[in-house]
Amino acid sequence: MDIQETWMTMSDQEQIFLKQWSSHQTKPKAIILLIHGMTEHIERYYHFAEHLISHGFVVYGYDQRGHGKTANDQQLTFGYLANTKGFERLTNDAIEVTDNLREKHPSLPVFVIAHSMGSFVARHYMTHPEAAMLSGVILLGTGMQPKPLLIIGKWLAKMLGKWKGKATPSPFMNQLTFLGYNKKVENNTSFDWLTRDQETIQAYIEDPLCGFIPTHQFFYDLYKGLQLIQQKDRAKHIPKDLPIYFLSGDADPVGQLGKGIKKTYHFYQSVGLSNLDLTIYPEARHELFNESNRFEVYQHVLSWLDKQMICAQKTHSV
């Protein structure tokens, strides 16, 4: 496996850390762009990327603003996205990275696979015109959040930011956001809601680039972003035939233990999207790629990707 690490300058002149996994032994059949979740980083997807490469894909991922090497190596504040419109900036980053990958591999289809906060970014991406160029989107650990919670959360984050500083870590907002998540499962740590795999939990706890407390501005941006992606008028801009695959565990609190992911699925049905698939895994928690049944998830993802590529080939040949 060949691994390349680079830095990409974005349209606002900020730089993000970009990673590529590929194989010189096989010709790639498609591009996969991975978008990671909140308070983690792209290196945690190494094993999944390795699996994808072994099946003929070239894989890219990047550390989002305020995360991973993008924050650490530039001595930037963890959990701080931008002075204004941070969520929109994350979305623009995803679009710009995809455009860059398409220039490198003009003949290959592009799929986005996004987890948790990354899935929220991808869902916003889908409402932009550039989404028409995607061959499919896979969303893991996503859901629908109650509108009153988003209104209150955004207001609180804004007020606390004015009082204590926008770039200051916010233990209160962190507690509010994740309140009750760990109570849904048997737990020995604060992060047992992520996965049943205890080795993964321990590695997460010991990883200095994981589990940090984001800033007040981050939580404002997050709640604002959740409001944006749950607006029907905005969702109606998504290409009606864009293939989208939702995966969740029925013990994932972000997906409201299966209820929220079903609401998300039906939300996109209600705006006219016609190419949707949904898989819910019994007893699985938030991080499906790190779950005890991860290889089952891997296989479902690969089967879905292959199905979309076959469908696309048939369409082009007609």
From TrEMBL:
<dbReference type="InterPro" id="IPR029058">
    <property type="entry name" value="AB_hydrolase_fold"/>
</dbReference>
<protein>
    <submittedName>
        <fullName>Lipase</fullName>
    </submittedName>
</protein>
<dbReference type="InterPro" id="IPR051044">
    <property type="entry name" value="MAG_DAG_Lipase"/>
</dbReference>
<feature type="domain" description="Serine aminopeptidase S33">
    <location>
        <begin position="27"/>
        <end position="292"/>
    </location>
</feature>
<dbReference type="Pfam" id="PF12146">
    <property type="entry name" value="Hydrolase_4"/>
</dbReference>
<dbReference type="InterPro" id="IPR022742">
    <property type="entry name" value="Hydrolase_4"/>
</dbReference>
